[in-house]
TrEMBL record:
It comes from Nonomuraea insulae. The lineage of its organism: Bacteria, Bacillati, Actinomycetota, Actinomycetes, Streptosporangiales. This is ATP-binding protein. Keywords: ATP-binding, Kinase, Nucleotide-binding, Serine/threonine-protein kinase, Transferase. InterPro entries: Anti-sigma-factor_SerPK, HATPase_C_sf, HATPase_dom. It comes from the Bacteria. One of its GO terms (molecular function) is ATP binding. CDD domains: HATPase_RsbW-like. Gene3D superfamilies: Histidine kinase-like ATPase, C-terminal domain. The keyword Kinase applies.
Amino acid sequence: MLKELENAARLPWLARRELRAWVGDHAASADLELITSELVTNALVHGGGAWVRLSLEAEEVGARSYWRVTVVDPGRSASVPMPRMPALGETSGRGLWLVDELTDGCWGTGTRAGERVVWALLPLMGRSKETGDVSGVGGSDGVAAVSGH
């Protein structure tokens, strides 16, 4: 699935909507939506462009199954995405800390053809709502993508 999105300010919302359409009421959907929203917002704020490409794939790593969320932006900024320590009163600067916590540190960045790529892995079955522990069992689903500018 590929969509052209024209309103950069609405891309995080549109990305969450597409994600809900892709995974429905999956056990990991709430965490996937939060991770996706944070990565898309970060790409828009720091990526230097008015578009992002979003993909979601089921992936096996060893004996465990994960969702891989990937966000690509134009890569016009020289900065590398990394968590920072916001001041107490700041209203931003916590997104990558959330991503790091939800993925147990399984996320990263890179470049491809001059574009910046940020990805995150979340166990296919999501986190336990009671303990926050992750479990990674499950099958494989398809691939979907959305882009906008």
